[in-house]
Amino acid sequence: MTIGTNRVFFPNNYWDGCLDQISYFSRVKNATEVLSDAKLTVAYSFNDTLLADGPLGINGTGINFAYTASGRISTGLNLLITVSYVKTDGLVLLGASARPYSISIWINPTVTTSGNIIHVAPTTMGISWSVPMLGFINTGNLGAQGCSPSESVSLTGPVVPTGTWTHVVITYGTSNGLRLWINGTQFSASSSAYNYTAPDVPVPVTLGASLSSAGSCSSDVITTGQYLGSLDEFQLYSRELSSTDIWNLANP
Prior knowledge:
- By secondary structure, the chain is mainly beta.
- The chain has 2 helices and 15 strands.
- The chain has helices at 31-39, 243-250, and strands at residues 40-44, 61-63, 66-68, 76-79, 85-91, 101-109, 116-120, 131-136, 141-147, 152-159, 166-173, 177-182, 185-189, 203-207, 229-237.
- Strands 1, 3, 4, 6, 11, 12, 13 and 15 form an 8-stranded antiparallel sheet that branches.
- InterPro entries: ConA-like_dom_sf.
């Protein structure tokens, strides 16, 4: 197999551009697999490892975490002390403005009055921007946040029980805005569509803590702090998941 040229009319037929993540499979992939290859950015099952389950092979790192045999599906991730978190770096499309995204995760908290579950902030010097995308409000409700050109966009979710697994999905699209889904059903949505505003540089996602906080979207309804509890089956997509997609994720 030759990549970049077919060696005909050498040397005037070289590919001029970028290529990445080239894989060969000795079978025909179905439509679901092809869509996953194109749009599933990061996936961690937390089965005693932070190695990626997604097609891009983006592995995670973290500190002060442990695994629990009582995950939602097989083993899960425990974040039970301050500071403990898992992080994935170099996410290009999540750091790009006006691009759709969806985040799916199972949560089993021990405290629900504060804590960042999913936090996004660039590490590039001189950029003032961050978003706590999922976390708890001081009332015990779940909260979701996005970022528009003028301000933070926030949603208030339900009171989530402790000691119980709850499936949570955040979706964003330019037409539908920000939506919050609980256990496979839409719970709340932004009042209008908006353009997601991002720093247009690759960004990391941190699970369980906020490592930095800056910019107009850095604060709103979510009470910042350490998330305490368990997490399982984290997935980040570079598309807006459908209601069928979300129902299937919530009912494995």
